[in-house]
UniProtKB/TrEMBL annotation:
SMART domains: PBPb (SM00062). PANTHER family: ABC TRANSPORTER SUBSTRATE-BINDING PROTEIN (PTHR35936:SF25), MEMBRANE-BOUND LYTIC MUREIN TRANSGLYCOSYLASE F (PTHR35936). The keyword Metal-binding does not apply. Belongs to the bacterial solute-binding protein 3 family. InterPro entries: Solute-binding_3/MltF_N. This is Amino acid ABC transporter substrate-binding protein. It comes from Aeromonas veronii. It comes from the Bacteria. SUPFAM superfamilies: Periplasmic binding protein-like II (SSF53850). The keyword Membrane does not apply. Transmembrane segments: none annotated. Keywords: Signal.
């Protein structure tokens, strides 16, 4: 009798065992995703936690990772998924498929106030010839014409670790401009002011230029690797994300960080 009870208990435990799923997260992209100790914080992290909380078959673990290293792990098939890549199937063929869009992001040019060409009506990248841009390592933002101008040495690019480094370099005159999400740049600027790394008056040294595009962030899956749960996870994640959006849960999460939706 005792043997049968042990067998039954073992079967019950197996039936309720959760599949561990590790998802990589950008460690330096506040307010959307950043590392705090060993934890992942940010808007995307909270959305993904909310979505996967309803996926009872999985134990989802978010792991912070420098963006370039995370992409490399996904490319090799050593990591299951990463967030939040933009939809770039040609530039990153190793990411496939993508989830449903998680959040919209508005891509803008931010420059030092002395860059006279940087106005909301500026022609990008034509009006920025001869300038030096700071671009987050691993990011391919700016569009084909921008990177063609870089290739032809009409525009110079310096890779940096984060938006914070970009903004500090612009204020200190070490680079001219950057291209990134508007809310992310403003959030980082305000955090630096709160932390006394910048003064309020330093805001006058920065100027937003044209809106280049509205990108969307996704959960991107590795094309390689052996993940037997992959298809089932993808389908359930998209379903739960749809339901979260339908009840306005994504907007509520954004408002906790900014008080309003970035849309």
């Amino acid at each position: 009798m005792r043997v049968w009870c042990c067998l039954l208990l073992g079967l019950c435990m197996m039936a309720h065992a959760k599949t561990r799923v590790e998802i990589l997260a950008d460690a330096a992209y506040p307010p959307y995703s950043w590392q705090e100790g060993e934890e992942v914080r940010g808007i995307y992290a909270d959305i993904i936690r909310e979505v996967t909380a309803s996926m009872s078959d999985y134990e989802v673990v978010l792991k912070p990772m420098p963006w370039r290293r995370g992409l490399s792990l996904v490319e090799r098939g050593s990591a299951f998924a990463i967030f939040p890549p933009y939809y770039l199937p040609d530039a990153r063929p190793y990411i496939w498929p993508y989830s449903q869009p998680i959040l919209d992001e508005e891509l803008v040019v931010m420059c030092g106030a002395s860059v006279a060409a940087n106005t909301p009506q500026a022609r990008f990248p034509d009006d920025y010839s001869g300038l030096r841009f700071g671009i987050n390592a691993g990011f391919t933002v700016g569009g084909d014409l921008f990177w063609q101008a870089v290739k032809e040495k009409q525009i110079d690019v310096e890779e940096v670790k984060s938006n914070r480094e970009n903004l500090l370099k612009i204020v200190r005159g070490r680079i001219d401009c950057t291209v990134n999400d508007r809310i992310s740049l403003l959030y980082e600027l305000f955090k630096m002011i709160q932390g006394s790394q910048l003064a309020v008056t330093d805001m006058s040294l920065l100027k937003q230029g044209p809106v280049l595009s509205k990108e969307q962030g996704f959960l991107g899956y590795s094309r390689k690797g052996e993940f037997p749960y992959k298809q089932a996870f993808i389908e359930q994640f998209d379903k739960e994300l749809y339901l979260l959006k339908k009840r306005d849960g994504v907007r509520s999460i954004v408002e906790r960080y900014l008080g309003k939706s970035p849309r």
